[in-house]
Amino acid sequence: MDNQVKLTPSAIAIAITLIIWFGITVPQGVTPEAWHLLALFVGSIAAIIGKAMPIGSIAIIAITLVALTGVTNPKPAIAMKDALSGFSNSLIWLIGISIIISRGLAKTGLGNRIGYYFISLFGRKTIGIGYALAISELVIAPVTPSNTARGGGIIHPIMKSIATSFNSSPEEGTSNKIGKYLALVSFHINPITSAMFITATAPNPLIVKFVAEATHSNISITWGQWALAGLLPGLVCIALVPFVVKFFYPPEITETPSAPEFAREKLTQLGEMKAQEKIMIGVFTLLLLLWAGVPAMIFGQAYAVNSTAVAFLGLSILLVTKVLTWEDVLKEKAAWDTITWFAALVMMASYLQKLGLIKWFSVVIETNIASFGLGWGWAVFILVAVYLYSHYFFASTTAHITAMFAAFFTAGIALGAPPLFLAFIMIGASSMMMTLTHYATGTSPIVFGSGYTTLQEWWKMGLIMSIVNMSIWTLVGAVWWKFLGFW
C-alpha cells in the first residue's frame, strides 16, 4: 500500500471542504451544523476517490475533524463520543471479523482446493472452466466480505494458472486463446456474487443501515432475507455471463480436455484434505446455517442469533482449534483497516441523516424527478440509472454508496416506490456498478492489470454487462420478490 500523501488530491479535497464550508451559502432548510458536516464528508469522499492517503488515514483525520469542529454537538466530550460512535456499530464488526475468518481460505489452501475441484468436474470445455470459476466464486462469497480478496486473491490466480497451461498469456500475445475470455468471465461474476449476500462485500452492511434509517427501522434486512432475495436473479445472471462474454469475445480454444487433468494435478499437489481445511468447512457451514436463521426457523425465535455474534463464534472456533492464531488476527491488516474507515464513514453518514441533510437532499432529487410527471416505475428507472452510471466518477463502491445511496433511496420511497422492492433493486446496482471501469472496485485493477484485455475491451464489456445484469436483476428480481411477498 502506498502510504505517501499525494499533494494534488489532498489539495483538491481540502479546497472542496473549504468551499462548501465557507464559500457556499447554507441552503434554506439546512442547519449550519449539517452543512459543515457535509463539507467534511464530501472532502473525505474526494480524498478517498483521489487516493490522497490510505483510506484508514483519511478516516482518522475525518474522525478528528468531526470531534474538533463540534459539528454534531458543541460540547467537546459529546462531540468526541459522536465521532467514535461508528465503532459501536455491530455491522462494521460483522464485516471485519468475517474478513479475518476468510483468511483461513488462503492459509489452509481450501480456496484453491475448491476452485480446482470444480474445474476438474466442469473443465472439459472453455465455457465449463468459466462456470467452474463462477461456482467457486459463489461457494466462497458468503464468507469473504472482501470481493477483492475473493476475485483478485483467490479466483484470479487460479484463472491465470489455467490460462498459462494453455499457453495463453499477454506477454506472448496469445490472450485470445483462452485467457481474455476467462479473465472477463471470472471478473464479471465477482460483482454478481457481491450482490447476493450481505457478507459478500464490505459496503453491503451500509445499505442495511441506510434502509433501516430511511424507513424508521420498519425494514431491517436480515442476512437470510438478503440471500433469498438475491438467489434467483443472481443465479440467472451468473448463468448468462459465460455466454454473453463468449458472444463478444469468443476464445480461440473451446475444447479443453486437458484442463480437468491439470486441475487434478493441482489437487494432488495439495494432498489429502487436512484437518484444518475440514474445520474451515465446518465453520463455514455453521456460519451459513446461523446467518440464514435456520435454528430460529426450526425451533422458534428464542434460538435466533445475532449475525455479528455468529461471526465472533466462527472466529472463536478457529482460534480454539488453532486454524488461525492471534498473530493471524493481528496481521489481517485489511480487516482492521476496514473497521477503521467503515466506522468513520458510517458515523458521518449517520449524523448527516440525524441532522436532516439526507432528507433535504432527497427532497431535491424527488422534486426534480416528480416534475417529469412520471409514475414510480419510471422514476425508479431514472434514479437507479443515475445512481449506477455515476460510478464512472468513483473509484470506490464504499465511497459511492456512502455518498449517494441514502438520498436516492429516500427519494425513491417519496416518489411511491415500494421500499423493499426499491432496496433490492439498488442493492443490485450497488454491486453491478463494479463492472464499469478498470478502477471501479479493488478487483478491477488486479484482473485488468494482468494484461489480458485492452482498456477499450474492458470498458465495452463493462457497459454491456451492466445493462445485461441490471436488466436480469430487475426483471427476474421483480417477479421473484413479488412471489416472496417482498412488495
Radius of gyration, taken over Cα atoms and rounded to an integer in Å: 23 Å
Question: Which percent range describes the beta-strand content?
Answer: under 5%
Q: Write the H/E string, N to C.
A: HHHHHHHHHHHHHHHHHHHHHHH
Number of beta strands: 0
Largest sheet: none
Share of residues in helices: over 70%
Class inferred from helices and paired strands: mainly alpha
Number of helical runs? Answer: 23
Average the pLDDT over all residues and give the rounded result: 89
- Contiguous low-pLDDT stretches (5 residues minimum) are none
Shape: globular
Can you describe what's shown?
This protein is mainly alpha-helical and 487 residues long. Among the domains are: 83 residues, no CATH class; 241 residues, no CATH class. Helices cover 72% and strands 0% of the residues. It is built from 23 helices and no strands. Helix 3 runs antiparallel to helix 4, helix 7 packs antiparallel against helix 11 and helix 19 runs parallel beside helix 21. The longest helix is centred in the C-terminal third of the chain and has 29 residues. The chain is globular and about 70 Å long.
Task: Detail the topology: elements first, then pairings.
Elements lengths: L6 H17 L8 H18 L5 H15 L6 H8 L6 H19 L1 H13 L3 H15 L6 H19 L13 H18 L7 H11 L8 H26 L10 H12 L4 H17 L2 H6 L7 H14 L5 H6 L1 H22 L2 H14 L5 H14 L7 H18 L4 H14 L10 H7 L5 H29 L4
Supply the key terms.
single chain; 487 residues; mainly alpha; 23 helices
Short characterization:
This protein is mainly alpha-helical and 487 residues long.
